[in-house]
Amino acid sequence: MHFQRQTISVEEALRRLLAGLTPLQEEQVGIGEAHGRTLARDLAATCDMPPFDRSPLDGFAVRAADTAGATPDRPVRLRVLETVGAGQIPRQTVTAGTAVRIMTGAMMPPGADAVIMFEQTEQPGELLEWVGVKRPLRPGENISRRGEEIAAGTCVAQAGTRINAGTLAVLATFGYAQVPVVRRPRVGLISTGTELLDVDQPLEPGKIRNSNAVMLSALIAEAGGIPVLCGRLPDDLALAKRHMAKCLEEVDLLVTSGGVSVGDFDVMAALADDPDVTLLFNRVAMRPGGPTTALLYRDKLVCALSGNPGACFLGAELFVRPVLRRLQGDREAGLRRIRATLAETYDKPCPYPRYLRGRLTEREGKLYVVPDHNDKAGNLATLGKSECFLIIPAGGRGKQAGETVDVIPHAAPDWRDEA
């Protein structure tokens, strides 16, 4: 199987990876620590919102019947009983011929059934005993009724929601000081290859520094996981298995880089033939990163990515990120595609779909994708500029500028003017 591999599509590979995966356990965190986490269960409104009838603007609370016939030329004059600010409780009841000066968000006084804004009264900026109302109002006009936005018991945040600032505002409104979230996955990282040096080591002939471990750590953290560095994998298969088994005791998922091809020292490729593992796949119809491999060992998932930086980056985005989303309770963890117009021709032939790094830009209301032509699997100089992967279908023609292509975004575009 090392040399005879069954090639499957990216979509089928992802289906096999996600099959059977369930969210990790729930844990409670303070609301100040919940940003970016995934909600573990549905949360409901603990009260009505608004919790009382209130004014949505600065003005005067009145009885609508008292404003009948009011015009700018012949305003209706009402006696002002008091001023009520937000957070204050009205002391007076509005009766015939009276009004209460009221601020935005303040509780409606008894007896009032409408609010006239300051701008539609005489001398709105002055604190006077009388107010002149310049137009008639309908009962209920300019009042936010109790529970009209959200009724108590209504679900306000669903399980699987990635908690953002808006979600936090909702949870705070309903008193959720502690938030039930899905535990963050611990992801073991193992590098393979005797050619690798640590980042702080000086270069030696035939050696390169280990950029993949740093890159993968950042991608995993960005996806909500906790990267756990597990060192290097020995070239000896028996030693490699023991090392992996030890790492798997401490993590939920293991990600390796390198060793997936057909070379003499590619230990991850050799592991695919081992009777102690369940192979999910070891070749994907994609460029770069075709030898990407996934297997189950000790009942845990192992994603073995290419050692070439560009292919490793692609594999992490296509496969590791969706796995992390699913482990954190995302029900729609698959790849999310959009359509964009190709800004530059790419006609390099390929027997498999090619996933090109690219950037998104907007011109005159139309979305374009600009391919990164630095597309060799080992090239990493332009990784930091990548915002998406544009898919060039298999075959010899490629795609011409102006054609529409599928795009998988992986970073927020910065919308720089390409000109």
Automatic annotation (TrEMBL):
Catalytic activity: adenylyl-molybdopterin + molybdate = Mo-molybdopterin + AMP + H(+)
Cofactor requirements of the protein: Mg(2+)
EC supergroup of this enzyme: transferase
EC number assigned by the record: 2.10.1.1
MoaB/Mog domain residues: 188-326
Gene Ontology molecular function terms on file: metal ion binding; molybdopterin molybdotransferase activity
Annotated metabolic or biological route of this protein: Cofactor biosynthesis; molybdopterin biosynthesis
UniProt keyword terms in alphabetical order: Magnesium, Metal-binding, Molybdenum, Molybdenum cofactor biosynthesis, Transferase
The family this protein is said to belong to: Belongs to the MoeA family.
Role according to the record: Catalyzes the insertion of molybdate into adenylated molybdopterin with the concomitant release of AMP.
Record-given protein name: Molybdopterin molybdenumtransferase
Species: Brevibacillus thermoruber
